[in-house]
Amino acid sequence: MSMATKVKLDTAGSIWKVLVSQGDSVKKGDTLFIMEIMKMEVPHEAPVDGTISAVHIAEGDEALEEGALAIEIS
User: Which fold has domain 5-73?
Assistant: First the structure.
């Protein structure tokens, strides 16, 4: 069993949209979620192909810190 790839927040901010759910298959480059940072929409993409094994964020989450674990892909 391979280690899960952990997708962390690049910067502090709020979650505007979550576009994946646990069990979804994703390809490298797919948008996983969109943050709102200083009124700008910032998409976060999958760094690898795989299956979403955990989602640690939800739409509307606010004041999340840089480096917070958002999604795990296995």
Answer: OB fold (Dihydrolipoamide Acetyltransferase, E2P) (2.40.50)
